[in-house]
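User: Could you check the structure of this?
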Amino acid sequence: MSAWVLMAMLEQARAWDRVQGLPPESKAEVLHTLDTIKASAIHWSENSQADDLPARRPTPSSPAEPLTTEVEGHGTAVTAAQRLGCTERRVRQMVKEGKLSGRRIGGTWFIEDQSVDDYLLRKDVA
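Assistant: Sure, the predicted structure tokens are below.
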């Protein structure tokens, strides 16, 4: 249960966004740790009998598969690309440029829905 609670706290603190300014080696280590905590939380949720906590969606059965679990408030890069009318690669570039907020979990990029909405608003105003 502690992994699930810690994961919820990290999401509230926007831990992934704060990691962006770290040096590459530190950033990689912190992101790996955060991914491990997320995996622990998902594993706990799948194997828990507690009815009072929200259930998490299952992870893929094989570790080689990309992670396709949903992250609250985020869509995949594919979904963001469809909404923006561009390619998935361009979405990843926009994250690196700071135009969108997102993070990679396993092999899947998750883009904050709000950052896509904000980008579309800025694009409409310009």
